[in-house]
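Dock uridine-diphosphate-N-acetylglucosamine; give full complex structure.
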Amino acid sequence: MDSIVIEGGHPLSGEIQISGAKNSAIKLQAVCLLTDKKVTLKNMPRLADTRFMGQLLAHMGVDVEEGPGSQMTLHAKSLSSTTAPYDLVRKMRASFNVLGPLIARTGAAKVSLPGGCAIGARPVDLHLKALEALGAQITLDEGYVIANAKDGLRGADITFPFISVGATEHTMLAAVLAKGKTVLNNAAREPEIIDLAECLNAMGAKITGAGRSMIEIEGVKSLGGVTHSVVPDRIEAGTYALAAATVGGKVKLTNLRPDHLGSLWPLIAQAGSDVQLQADSVIIQRNGTELRPVDIDTQAYPGYPTDLQAQFMAMMTLADGVSIIRENIFENRFMHCPELSRMGANITVSGREAIVRGVKSLHGAPVMATDLRASASLISAGLAAKGSTTIGRVYHLDRGFEHIEIKLGQCGAKIKRVSE
Ligand code: UD1
């Protein structure tokens, strides 16, 4: 199993190019199930998660071609299976989102329930209720969802009881081929939802309102092929921005959409870094200024993203004072706290809040990655700490960060991957 070894205490200096968004890419891959024409995705990140999704789609008979460069072509000319087995779904929860497109295209599907994960129970009740509202008959059998819609799906008026990114996207993926109009109320507004809608609309779908809390979908009979470029990864960008702000130095991030991180930039500035925003790049600089404490409160977009909570906390462990980090989206997303504490951080968790009392310095230690974004906070802390940090279970990182050690290495970080 690979580890990442970091010699901390060196400021970062250089340029990092941001990849396509993992969270968008894996849903865009599922789009291919809605058409017998080719779907070509550009700016695709090369990650364990996009590979898992490719394997699941290939299992269903989709022709998956990687390259050239960061391109992936998916062709679901005909489907040989409408079953998504547990072994493939368990590797990545979002692969559950093939259920909707499979029912929409074929009228039947059998997809394994994804189960919980380290950051919480993560049920899929909203997904299933929305698909039922569209006319799918759903039964659960031995951990599988068995869905049928022999006469096709029909549009419906759906109000989500709370905001769910996955349920919003999943319902869109099913409703595009339903008969009649679907209205989604209290929909998620993340940039990845707009990306999905733009891709589907380019294939002939009729979706309006993506990015707002009411989305309208006029069902169409069929969808054509498409070439679509994946939106830049705002979470990867935010992770490197926070690493630069935590460690100090000057880093330019390129190929991103700074407007997708509107909640982050003022907080980084408040904490002591200079933030220069350009059309598709950002410069983060901190030379000598002390880190100041800043409270954060995670919310659905456009609020502060839960996927950047751990990385912000890593920065606050070194601030000159006390900060309060509140996690509102997932019930168990503080597993990085004991790991950061092993490096000398002073953190007290109480329910959904973590109180972080800044310390003068962190020290290197052996630590364990517990989930995808938490592992990024350990990288940041390791880069800022005195001495050597070894991070185990880096497969979590490989799920969502493309070439992290290469990108940081280009900015002067002393970071390497070690295979045992
Ligand atoms: C997506 C992102 C993830 C991010 C999260 C919130 C992907 C692949 N993952 O996850 O990185 O952290 O959005 O921005 O895009 N819930 C239910 N029932 C449901 C669905 C969700 O109770 O049917 C709960 C979840 O357990 C969670 C909350 O709703 O507590 C929000 O989850 P959701 O927005 O659905 O997150 P994901 O789509 O799973």
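Observed: The chain has a mean pLDDT of 95.
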